[in-house]
Amino acid sequence: MPSLPSIRGRGSQRGPSGQVPHVPVPLSHYVVDCAVYVDGKRLPGRWTHTDAVKEVRRRKDGFVWIGLHEPDAEQIEGIAETFGLHELAVEDAVHAHQRPKLERYDNTLFMVFKTVRYVTNPSPDTANEIVESGEIMVFLGKDFVITVRHGNHSGLSKLRHVLEADPERLEIGPSAVMHAIADQVVDNYLEVTDHVEDDIDRMEERVFAPRTEVSAEQIYMFKREVVELRRAVMPLANPLRRLAEGYTPLIPEQVRAFFRDVDDHLTEVAERVTAFDELLTTLVDATLAKITLQQNTDMRKITSWVAIISVPTMVVGVYGMNFDYMPELKWKFGYPLIMTLVLVACLTLYRILRRNRWL
To answer: I need a surface site. Which of 31, 181, 253, 266 has the fewest CB within 10 A?
Structure first.
């Protein structure tokens, strides 16, 4: 295998002048796979990006698929020069944190997908994160497709194997790869929304169940995660629709129909995400109302007990005053009588408040 060319990388040690020297870092550190496909079949052997594109253009047939994982600006420089990638698109691919979008630079398409993954938690009540996001950037040309991944959950190796097992599909060209990526991303959206829906259903049961406590902060956390999911789903609708409607000749007619199918699935996801957001807003209102009702109930109980305790407090306060002439002070049965009257008054108040459901 010919060694992949090394492009300047960053080191961590400083030289005598205090500057950080450039240490060569192999491009293979960032290249997940580089393959040449002709007539839908992968050519044997391993390829550098320069040898791969030379082989395709010598044959005037097939395409190159290069997969990169979180490259830096210097590492992607050689690939960008070889394939003529626009510097603005390259900058977006390196720095990530982009919204889903579709841009055209001369004869190259640049598309950004937001990937999501459901984070399994023992209980939604103790979860700090439900949806983990990543990104896939796709450069699409007439004879190449370059994928740049950010995040550890958005791997494309399985997808590559599935496509390689279907040569008729790969024979269409690079556009088939972009469609397969879009389809996988949207299918992951559907899977994540299924899990999120189950969690929200369980939380809804707890909110409306009697004598259960659900923290409003936990529901707000769910809303935050749904917002993150919505940021991945909603902006993707316009790019998919443009591809399905013939935005560029790089997407042939036979592939546009498949993009329309992906767009339909995305619409389903978008509707479900919107419903999640509305349902969580309802759950927040219900939880706050439940908390307010509980506080009112607690205040009524406190007020009731204060009213009952005020009776003996008043009597003790009156008889605690230093007066010589007070009723029943010198009477033998004065103390039992007063205690009996206090007890009867307290029990009467208790029964009245209990009947009115304050206690």
So the answer is: 253
